[in-house]
């Protein structure tokens, strides 16, 4: 039993290790473009930028459109993507496209198409093969693609078949008719075989032609996906690109036909004979042209000639039916040209059909058979005017379908308009914006044959029939995502009416002229429009294929388990890969644990970072380090504990650490985008604008307002003094600071002592208290994974708080501006700033104004009341300190005629020491955070912090370090005498931060706290009520430092 358990565990461990290794490899692969400083589209595990496999399609159309549009949107000319782990460069700029396909072709000779000559010889044809085999074969084949009379003979079979269904006798499946036509042409030109597919529509040739591009089984889809996305692995696995039945049929057909001709000394002027002659001519050479190679070229000729031409003609007829005026114009040209050539369709007459060529060109613009052009870099290549080097072996893709529909090159690109290809219009466009056959030395070798075949078929039809879409056709058509080439899911049924001289030709002195009256054109509704008037047509809509319930296997349950296991393993692998960050950078670190890294706050049911930062500090200190890396879930964070390094980060090298990295979401949560949270380049201009608000002059201006609010607090305490009631001092202090901020920030008298349930108090209490589990989880996610939170649109500020403050600010500002009312407060300064910048390039908006007012409320109300609460707690615990502070207050007031003024407050030095010592023990913000904005090397080390890395200073632990503060838990204001302060490192006491990004409102906060404490001390002696549960405990459920218990005191009149 133990053996079984051990074996099972070993297998599980092996599978897990393998999965983690695979995942790590994927993630490492996704750094390719970034390391080469090439713009790229962000990939996603495990398919990179490719989604085609997940959407059950081997068609690359949608993806290339998406890549093209995203690259274009970002103003780029090219960008890197990943197909699974394979880096691919997508190029959309016509100049760069010309460089790759033509000008610098020697660097991009190969297509990089998957082929497996050993296991799948038919795949090793001219389209796929690479240098050095490609060029010699291309040069041999090029001279031998020419017009033969067989094509005209095959077109007669097409016309005869259509004639039998014309004039409403039958709806015509035009795609099937055209495919039969091209099958007969290729059968004759390539194999010398009369296929007679019009007489035998179920012939094996037609069935094999239809089957070539079908991906109708899961195995075929997986194989196609592997060949496309991971060709090297596919080659090692020996995967084929051909269906076995198709490969066997064509290989056997070629072998039998060649054998028959050679055995019977039979020759025929066709493509196959050319290849037979090449084979025989090279059989004794060092590089013979083998039967497998011959079969591959014949197969390519069949595929390219049969499918692409029939598809082009099908789409052309679709557009001609939808645009009867264009159909009539093309027909007129065909009739005019044929009249000049005695009614005969010849190579020369075909060349003269210029407008028909424009029609085909436009059809191939909207519906290029191949949606992309691919090349592979064969030696390192530097993109001109850049520092980017494409490495040898890198695939390069041109999204042809998207390029053809770029409105920058083709205005109103969805409209079918052959005039785009008139000589005048073509000369106005970049020549590399229309590439249905590619361009340069490796363009389509059979393009002339394909165009000629298409023109013969279309000209033959137009001279005989007028076409319209049958009502039985399901409109609109949708692209078929199950096949490689561009095709429609629905069958295009048309009605063909024979063209007669009476109906269409107005006699002229020469031949006459085909014409359709303007009235007829205007009154002819397009299919499906029912004569309702003009309708903007989209040529094709993309439809998702029907998805069966089981995605991978035949069991949806097993599918779910497989996908769930893959997801779990992938997540675990990602976590463990993330946990190598600091080790790879040779930076000391505290070992993390899955899944929270070094963070335990989620498991401890707390979003408070206090205990954790103290633990990190102690462990780093114990190991004799000055800094160390940790992980918050998977996010690497650097903890700094050395005062010299802290000074470097906060002040000396501030330019590397300008941002706080505080979560803010300006789009969904505008109140969060305040001065404390925002980053450069917006922070510095705003800071410089707001800084004058907190000068000594502005402090004096608001002093009397704060003093007046303090008197309300004294009156409230007086009513409960001398044992009449225990006083909830935290509540009293919160009411005091609420009144102060309400008045100084909003110009509103809150009267919270008279109305303790005022909306201001309720909002103040609610700001930092999470509402339920969901809100707690949201705050944890915001703290630990800010990038993900931003993508999810998570808000830090509660909805009701945001609505309240935004509405309050907007109403107050409107009232002041409408009534020309001003008041010497913080809000007025921001209104003046808004009005002064409204006509500038960077106006100070109402949302920004509301955010700063909200910050002023939160910082001024909560931190000051908390500081005073803890100060009174320690003064009650240390009555000698309380008495000394009171004596100083009384002595200073006596010097100023008993008046508390801005100047008298400045003279209360010991009271300042008391507050400083409180801020040491009970720092409102337990950490200082910064984010590295450019790579930074720590002095005297080899450790470099990368751009984007968060840096944290654990203040509460620093403030309680016995190396700086002996007996650190003891409350001792003497630590902050001038003599003692000068003996310590200045960066060991940082309650308001330090450097350019310290707390902007520190002077206001200290003034408010000193006024509140001085007013209480001059009136009352305080002691802790016996009803209090001692000692106080920190509340771990909120962001700022607070006590879990309320502090009840007894106040006695002096």
TrEMBL record:
Residues that, per the record, bind heme: 999
Cofactor(s) listed: heme
Residues passing through the membrane, by range: 6-26, 556-577
Pfam families assigned to the protein according to its UniProt record, in alphabetical order: p450
GO terms assigned for molecular function: heme binding; iron ion binding; monooxygenase activity; oxidoreductase activity, acting on paired donors, with incorporation or reduction of molecular oxygen
Taxonomy, superkingdom: Eukaryota
Keyword flag Nucleotide-binding: no
Membrane topology: Peripheral membrane protein
UniProtKB keywords: Endoplasmic reticulum, Heme, Iron, Membrane, Metal-binding, Microsome, Monooxygenase, Oxidoreductase, Transmembrane, Transmembrane helix
Annotated GO CC locations: endoplasmic reticulum membrane
PROSITE patterns the record matches: CYTOCHROME_P450
Cell compartments where the protein resides: Endoplasmic reticulum membrane; Microsome membrane
Family classification: Belongs to the cytochrome P450 family.
UniProt-recorded name of the protein: Cytochrome P450
């Amino acid at each position: 039993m133990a053996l079984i358990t051990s074996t099972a565990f070993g297998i599980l461990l092996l599978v897990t290790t393998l999965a983690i290794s695979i995942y790590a490899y994927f993630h490492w692969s996704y750094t390719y473009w970034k390391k080469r400083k090439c713009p790229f589209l962000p990939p996603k595990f495990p398919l990179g930028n490719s989604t085609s496999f997940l959407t059950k399609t081997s068609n690359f159309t949608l993806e290339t459109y998406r890549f093209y549009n995203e690259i274009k949107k970002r103003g780029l000319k090219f960008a890197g993507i990943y197909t699974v782990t394979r880096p691919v460069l997508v190029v959309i700029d016509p100049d760069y496209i010309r460089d790759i396909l033509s000008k610098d072709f020697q660097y991009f000779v190969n297509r990089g198409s998957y082929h497996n000559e050993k296991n799948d010889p038919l795949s090793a044809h001219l389209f796929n093969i690479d240098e050095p085999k490609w060029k010699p074969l291309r040069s041999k084949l090029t001279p031998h693609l020419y017009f033969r009379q067989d094509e005209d003979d095959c077109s007669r079979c097409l016309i005869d078949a259509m004639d039998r269904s014309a004039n409403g006798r039958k709806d015509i499946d035009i795609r099937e008719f055209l495919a039969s036509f091209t099958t007969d042409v290729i059968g004759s030109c390539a194999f010398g075989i009369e296929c007679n597919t019009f007489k035998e529509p179920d012939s094996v040739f037609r069935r094999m032609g239809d089957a070539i591009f079908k991906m109708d089984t899961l195995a075929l889809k997986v194989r196609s996906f592997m060949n496309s996305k991971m060709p090297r692995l596919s080659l090692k696995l020996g995967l084929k690109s051909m269906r076995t039945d198709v490969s066997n049929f064509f290989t056997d057909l070629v072998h039998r036909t060649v054998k028959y001709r050679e055995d019977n000394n039979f020759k025929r002027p066709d493509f196959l004979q050319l290849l037979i002659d090449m084979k025989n001519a090279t059989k004794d050479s060092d590089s013979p042209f083998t039967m497998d190679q011959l079969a591959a070229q014949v197969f390519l000729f069949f595929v390219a000639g049969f499918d692409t031409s029939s598809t082009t003609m099908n789409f052309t007829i679709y557009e001609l039916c939808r645009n009867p005026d264009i159909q009539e114009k093309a027909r007129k040209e065909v009739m005019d040209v044929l009249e000049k050539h005695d009614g005969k369709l010849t190579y020369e007459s075909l060349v003269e059909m210029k407008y028909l060529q424009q029609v085909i060109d436009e059809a191939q613009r909207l519906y290029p058979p191949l949606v992309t052009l691919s090349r592979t870099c064969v030696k390192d290549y530097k993109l001109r005017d850049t520092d980017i080097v494409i490495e040898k072996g890198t695939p390069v893709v041109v999204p042809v379908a998207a390029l053809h529909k770029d409105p920058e090159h083709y205005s109103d690109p969805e409209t079918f308009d052959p005039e785009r290809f008139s000589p005048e219009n073509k000369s106005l466009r970049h020549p590399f914006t229309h590439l249905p056959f590619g361009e340069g030395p490796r363009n389509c070798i059979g393009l002339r044959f394909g165009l000629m075949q298409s023109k013969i078929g279309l000209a033959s039809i137009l001279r005989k029939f007028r076409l319209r879409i049958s009502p039985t056709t399901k409109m609109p058509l949708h692209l078929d995502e199950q096949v490689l080439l561009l095709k429609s899911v629905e069958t295009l049924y048309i009605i063909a009416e024979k063209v007669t001289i009476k109906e269409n030709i107005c006699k002229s002195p020469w031949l006459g002229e085909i014409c359709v009256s303007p009235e007829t054109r205007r009154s002819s509704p397009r299919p499906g429009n029912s004569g309702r008037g003009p309708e903007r047509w989209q040529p094709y809509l993309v439809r998702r294929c029907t998805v069966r319930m089981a995605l991978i296997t035949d069991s949806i349950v097993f599918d779910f388990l497989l996908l769930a296991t893959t997801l779990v393993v992938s997540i675990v692998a990602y976590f463990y890969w993330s946990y190598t960050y600091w080790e790879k950078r040779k930076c000391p670190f505290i070992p993390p644990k899955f899944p929270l890294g070094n963070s335990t706050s989620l498991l401890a049911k707390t979003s408070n970072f206090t205990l954790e930062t103290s633990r990190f500090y102690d462990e780093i200190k114990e190991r004799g380090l000055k800094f160390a890396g940790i992980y918050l879930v998977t996010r690497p964070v650097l903890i700094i504990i050395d005062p010299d390094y802290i000074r470097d980060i906060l002040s000396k090298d501030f330019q590397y650490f300008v941002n706080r990295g505080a979560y803010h979401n300006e789009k969904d949560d505008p109140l969060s985008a305040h001065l404390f949270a925002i980053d450069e380049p917006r922070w510095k201009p705003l800071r410089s604008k707001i800084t004058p608000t907190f000068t000594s002059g502005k402090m004096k201006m608001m002093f009397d307002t704060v003093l007046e609010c303090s008197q309300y607090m004294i009156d409230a305490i007086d009513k409960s003094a001398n044992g009449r009631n225990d006083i909830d001092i935290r509540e009293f202090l919160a009411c005091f600071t609420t009144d102060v901020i309400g008045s100084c920030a909003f110009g509103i008298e809150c009267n919270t002592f008279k109305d303790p349930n005022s909306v201001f108090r309720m909002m103040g209490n609610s700001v930092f208290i999470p509402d339920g589990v969901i809100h707690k989880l949201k705050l944890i996610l915001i703290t630990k994974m800010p990038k993900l939170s931003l993508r999810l649109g998570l808000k830090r500020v509660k909805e009701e708080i945001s609505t309240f403050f935004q509405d309050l600010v907007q109403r107050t500002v409107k009232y002041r501006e409408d009534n020309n009312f001003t008041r010497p407060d913080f809000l007025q300064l921001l209104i003046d700033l808004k009005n002064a910048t409204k006509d500038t390039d960077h106006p100070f908006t109402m949302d920004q104004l509301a955010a700063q007012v909200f910050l002023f409320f939160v910082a001024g109300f909560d931190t000051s009341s908390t500081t005073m609460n803890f100060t009174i707690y320690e003064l009650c615990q240390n009555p000698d300190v309380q008495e000394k502070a009171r004596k100083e207050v009384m002595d200073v007031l006596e010097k100023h005629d008993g008046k508390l003024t801005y100047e008298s407050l400045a003279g209360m030095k010991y009271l300042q020491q008391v507050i400083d010592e409180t801020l040491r023990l009970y720092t409102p913000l337990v950490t200082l955070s910064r984010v590295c904005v450019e790579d930074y090397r720590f002095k005297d080390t080899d450790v470099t912090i990368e751009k984007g890395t968060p840096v944290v200073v654990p203040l509460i632990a620093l403030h309680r370090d016995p190396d700086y503060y002996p007996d650190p838990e003891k409350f001792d204001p003497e630590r902050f005498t001038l003599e003692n302060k000068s003996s310590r490192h200045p960066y060991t006491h940082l309650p308001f931060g330090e450097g350019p990004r310290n707390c902007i409102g520190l002077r206001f906060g200290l003034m408010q706290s000193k006024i509140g404490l001085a007013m209480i001390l001059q009136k009352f002696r305080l002691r802790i009520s016996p009803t209090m549960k001692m000692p106080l405990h920190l509340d771990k459920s909120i962001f700022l430092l607070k006590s879990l218990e309320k502090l009840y005191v007894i106040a006695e009149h002096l």
